[in-house]
Design brief:
The complex is a heterodimer.
Chain A lengths: L1 H4 L4 H66 L11 H10 L3 E7 L5 E6 L4 E3 L9 H7 L4 E2 L3 E3 L3 E9 L7 E7 L1 H9 L7 E5 L5 E4 L2 H5 L8 H8 L10 E4 L5 E9 L4 E8 H4 L1 H47 L14 H74 L8 H31 L8 E3 L1 H18 L3 E5 L7 E3 L1 H18 L4 E9 L2 E8 L6 H6 L9 H7 L5 H11 L4 E5 L5 E8 L10
Parallel strand pairs in A: 14-16
Antiparallel strand pairs in A: 1-2, 1-7, 2-3, 4-6, 5-6, 6-7, 8-9, 8-12, 10-11, 11-12, 13-15, 16-17, 17-19, 18-19
Chain B lengths: L3 E5 L3 H13 L3 E5 L2 H11 L3 E5 L7 H10 L8 E5 L6 H8 L3 E4 L4 H11 L2
Parallel strand pairs in B: 1-2, 1-3, 3-4, 4-5
The chains are: A alpha+beta, B alpha/beta.
Chain lengths: 617, 121
């Protein structure tokens, strides 16, 4: 019943948890997968754009260098003779290409033949020795030589380009090129708001950076992992891999690069992740919001669904409990339109049938009970009639018997004159048999009165000592006839009892009479003691004793040890049964302890003060 | 002078036994068959002792005893109740009615005589 009072059952929790787990699980998985892929795609897309920018910038710088190189290389054919350089051509070069600030012509012997400068300083045939200059040595090997970047006036980057002429004895044209253009290119590149570009030389030194001071400090970036990686595989242009690294300031950046050939430079484009992924983060946040909203909705939906599933089951359960508790008038009211409703219907039909059969059963039981009680009443009346008949009958029997006994005794007492000895003896036998018959009738009378419920005790004060004395007096002669010792042990300080003295005496007489009757030698003892507010009386003998079987039924009506002894000893078989009833009516009990061949002890208890008669069944 | 004993008893045999017994002991016996007759006889004959049966037609032994005890002239006469009712409580009822002794049937004539002699030697 306690479970009925619980507002939420286990089933509801189970369903709710199952639904919520399923739905939120699906939503969460979906959200996480979406976030993962959108992160990857976003990163790749960002990187691709960045890389394109890097490639474009690299291309620009390359073009600038190539253009410059081309301009310089065009000069070379003019000094065909190898002796006198084309001064006009050199000056035109200066005019044409604003990045070139100075041009020198070194002859094949390594001597400076011509030096023109944007600053207007011209020198011819200075003869300065360049034969050990790397510009001359490298260019003479037949390849355009690019010097490392260096700075002039402390703030402008320069590079020297040296190109040898096509012939074997051709000289070398050495031009100083201002690389401010590279700076401009770098400065023009914007990656988002905080991102930017920088150029690293083949030696790992910073060549161009939006922050010029970093460049002027000649920062060596070869230790940056992205720079190191680029230098290790300079030709890996098609790399799809997106790197996340730290920049000089230690910020996390999304970095891409493009090589600038043939200089062996690299242009890096970097954007702080915090900025690059702003939109990604926003989209993640949106997704999370959607998932959260979805979860909340799904929980609500699950609760509603679980409730809808569980409510009819609860109605079923409560209904079943009510029906089980015997409320057959209860009907389960379900309108779910599914199996549960039909289950409820089955329940209702079952209950109806149960109710019908129950009502039928009750009618039957009532009818049978009525019949039984009628029969019982009739039986009781019949039994009472029988008992009354017996009681009346025995009374009617006693009246003539009393007369017979009276006359016989008068004759024996010679009231009517002398009697011959022989007749005297016969008359005594007549009296004896008459008295036996009378005691039989008396016993039957007592028993029938007990059964008719007309046996009432007369409760009065009595003295146990006197009672025992009376009993002894009336059986003395019987004991003496058989030479038996009559032993009594009754304390002299016994309290006054209350009970039916005459009936108690009847019990004593019955037990002591039996003891004397069945004992041929030895003694019969009567002992009285008190314990727990009761008299405990024992009547012992040294007779033949009783077997276990006989002890069992000895207090039942018409029971005797065997049929023969009844006739021989002259008992009715009712004495013990009547004694038992008398003792029980006093609220006491009676029992026997005996060993075959060693005599018997009959015990009975009597409450000392019996104030009320115990009912007999 | 012989003593007078009133026997109130409806059973003829019982009356005869008592009569034979008492007369053999030299008592004068007056007999009454009903309770009413017993009361009348007690008033008329003023016996020295009354033997009263309980189960009598009309007025029963208890009632007859009460009537006799109600008469101050008869109050001193000893009454012995003789009954064939061996029921518990009969003796108490008898004493309550005002009798002096109680004797259950079957009485031994010898014992009855002894009892009578206690009151009327």
């Amino acid at each position: 019943m306690a479970s009925l009072l619980k507002p939420r059952g286990k089933l509801f929790r189970k369903y709710a948890v199952l639904f919520v787990t399923l739905v939120t699980g699906a939503l969460l998985a979906n959200g996480l997968i979406e976030i993962y892929f959108s992160y990857q795609e976003n990163k790749t897309a960002l990187a691709r754009i960045q890389r394109e920018k890097a490639l474009a910038a690299a291309l620009k710088i390359e073009q600038f260098v190539n253009d410059t190189e081309l301009q310089i290389s065009w000069i070379a054919p003019w000094e065909a003779s190898g002796v006198s350089p084309d001064k006009v051509g050199y000056l035109r070069l200066l005019r044409k290409d604003p990045a070139i600030t100075e041009v020198r012509y070194i002859d094949s012997a390594g001597k400076e033949q011509l030096h023109v400068s944007r600053l207007g300083m011209e020198r011819e045939k200075s003869g300065a020795d360049f034969s050990h200059n790397p510009a001359f040595i490298e260019a003479k090997k037949g390849k355009t030589w690019f010097s490392p970047v260096y700075f002039r006036k402390g703030s402008e980057p320069y590079m020297t380009i040296a190109i040898a002429g096509p012939r074997k004895n051709s000289g070398v044209t050495v031009a100083d090129v201002n690389l401010k253009f590279v700076w401009e290119v770098v400065n023009q590149i914007k990656v988002g708001k905080a991102g930017g570009a920088y150029v690293v030389g083949s030696d790992g030194n910073l060549i161009a950076h939006t922050n010029i001071s970093l460049v002027l400090k000649k920062s060596d970036l070869s230790s940056l992992p992205q720079v190191a990686a680029a230098r290790e595989s300079p030709l890996n242009q098609g790399q799809e891999e997106v790197s996340v690294a730290r920049d000089l300031q230690g910020r996390q950046v999304l970095t891409t690069y493009a090589p600038i050939s043939p200089l062996g430079w690299f242009i890096f484009l970097e954007q702080p992740l915090a900025e690059a992924f702003v939109s990604l983060y926003a989209s993640i946040f949106r997704t999370a919001l959607f998932v959260l909203a979805g979860i909340v909705l799904s929980i609500l939906a699950s609760l509603i669904l679980a409730r809808r599933m569980v409510t009819p089951i609860r109605v079923l359960r409560d209904g079943a409990a009510k029906i089980g508790a015997g409320d057959f008038g209860h009907r389960i009211d379900l309108h779910t339109g599914d199996e549960l409703e039909s289950l409820g219907e089955e329940f209702n039909q079952m209950t109806t049938r149960l109710q019908e059969s129950y009502a039928h059963l009750e009618e039957k039981v009532e009818a049978r009970t009525h019949e039984l009680s009628d029969a019982f009443q009739q039986l009781e009346i019949a039994n009472k009639h029988k008992s009354e008949f017996l009681a009346n009958m025995s009374h009617e029997l006693r009246t003539p018997l009393n007369a017979i006994l009276g006359y016989t005794e008068l004759i024996v007492d010679k009231i009517y004159g002398d009697v011959p000895d022989k007749i005297q003896e016969v008359l005594e036998r007549v009296g004896e048999n008459g008295r036996h018959l009378l005691s039989l009738i008396n016993d039957v009378l007592d028993l029938s009165k007990i059964e008719a419920g007309r046996f009432t005790l007369s409760l009065n004060d009595y003295s146990m000592q006197d009672l025992v004395q009376t009993v002894i007096t009336s059986v003395e002669s019987l004991g003496a006839e058989k030479n038996l010792v009559l032993r009594t042990e009754v304390p002299s300080d016994l309290v006054t009892g209350k009970g039916d003295e005459q009936r108690i005496a009847q019990v004593f007489l019955n037990l002591v009479g039996n003891a004397i009757k069945f004992t041929d030698e030895g003694e019969v003892g009567i002992e009285v003691a008190t314990s727990n507010g009761s008299f405990l009386i024992s009547v012992s003998d040294t007779g033949p004793g009783l077997s276990e079987d006989h002890q069992q039924g000895i207090f039942e009506e018409f029971h005797q040890v065997d049929g023969s002894s009844t006739r021989e000893k002259g008992g009715t078989g009712l004495g013990l049964s009547i004694s038992k009833k008398i003792v029980e009516m006093h609220g006491g009990s009676i029992w026997v302890e005996s060993t075959l061949g060693k005599g018997s002890i009959f015990f009975f208890t009597l409450p000392i003060r019996v104030e009320q008669q115990e009912d007999q069944k | 002078m012989s003593r007078k004993i009133l026997v109130v008893e409806d059973q003829e045999d019982n009356r005869r036994i008592l009569r034979d017994l008492l007369m053999s002991a030299d008592y004068e016996v007056i007999e009454a068959v009903t309770g009413d007759a017993g009361v009348t006889a007690a008033e008329t004959h003023r016996p020295d002792l009354i033997l009263m049966d309980i189960q009598l037609p009309g007025l029963d032994g208890y009632e007859a005893t009460r009537h006799i005890r109600a008469n101050p002239d008869l109050q001193q006469i000893p009454i012995i109740v003789v009954t064939s009712y061996a029921l518990s409580g009969d003796d108490v009822k008898a004493f309550e009615a005002g009798c002096d002794a109680y004797m259950a049937k079957p009485f031994s004539p010898r014992k009855l005589l002894a009892k009578v002699r206690e009151y009327v030697p």
